[in-house]
Structures are given as C-alpha cells and as structure tokens.
Amino acid sequence: MCSLFYVETHHKKVCFHTPKSCVTTLFPTVILFDNGAMILIVEDNRQVRKMIRSLIEDFDEDICECEDGAEALDAFQKHRPQWVLMDLGMRRMNGLDATRQIINAFPDAKIAIVTNHDDTNMRLAATSAGACAYIVKENLIDLRRLFA
Question: What residues does 32 pair with on adjacent strands?
Fold first, then answer.
C-alpha cells in the first residue's frame, strides 16, 4: 500500500509517495515521518493563525495553515494531519460544514473547533459535525492540552 512519508536528511524533509518498505530500503538510516504527524490550522484571521502556531509549534514543527473550510478539505486530503484546529466562521465554507465533510471522508480525523462562540448550541453542533474538542479563543492556551 502506498502512503506519503517524509524522510529527514540533512535537516530537510523529503516527501515520498510509495510503500514504506521501499523508503526504508532506500534510506535505512534516516528518520521516517508518517504523513499524519502534522497539525492543520484552519482560520481566516492571519494574526490568530500566527498566535495559534506560536502556542503549538513546540509540539509539532510541521504545521499547515488554511484560510477557510474549502482549503481545509484539500489540505486534509493531501497531508492527512494528526489534528485539525478549525475555526467556525469563514467565508467560502464554514468550519461546521468542513468538519462534517472531513469526518465523512476520514472518520478517524481529529478535529478541534477553535472559535469565539462560547454557547451550548454551537458546542452541540460541533459535536454533531464530528469535532472531538471545542476551544474558545479567549482560552487558546487550552490548545496545549490537546498535544500534551
């Protein structure tokens, strides 16, 4: 079965889409990173993305960023991140719709909603969409608990 793997050589990550056994045969002494070893931040506000990145980058330096839910679908399919940190209110596709679509295609995906909306109805909607965590932006430090 082919998968996407990252090989670290000389402090650079090289991407391979091939069976793991082929990569380890070609590069027996390098470190392999499975494609699920990254975090995807989906947030339309660049400053908030930057703040989220600064809070979590010591847990995983491989972080991908998107500005809306439509981009998140493509990025998830391409990178298969370990975690998705998903805003709710975005232009082309909101976070709830993107969460539903990602979970429908990849039921094991781990998505945490990161939003300004701190109300019960929104939490229930996020859970119903498939999110496994809900973090209010005024408590962004709680993101660190996801990765600790």
Answer: 7
CA distance 15 to 103: 25
* Residues 88-112 pLDDT 10s: 999 899 999 999 999 999 999 999 9
| Token pair belonging to 144 | 């660190």
Spatial distance between the Cα atoms of 86 and 98, rounded to a whole number of angstroms: 9
Write down the CATH superfamily of domain 39-147. Response regulator (3.40.50.2300)
Residue 57's pLDDT band (boundaries 50, 70, 90)?
Answer: confident
Judge contact between 67 and 41, C-beta under 8 A.
no
> Is the pLDDT score of 28 beyond 70?
no
Question: Tens digits of per-residue pLDDT, 130-146?
Answer: 999 999 999 999 988 88
CB atoms under 10 Å from CB of 122, counted, come to 17
Spell out the domain ranges in the chain. 3-34, 39-147
Query: What does DSSP say about strands 3-9 and 12-18: parallel, antiparallel, or unpaired?
Result: antiparallel
Task: Give 77's contacts (C-beta < 8 A, 6+ positions apart).
Answer: 105
* pLDDT reading at 65 higher than 50: yes
Specify whether the backbone of 80 is left (phi greater than 0), alpha (psi in -120 to 50) or beta.
left
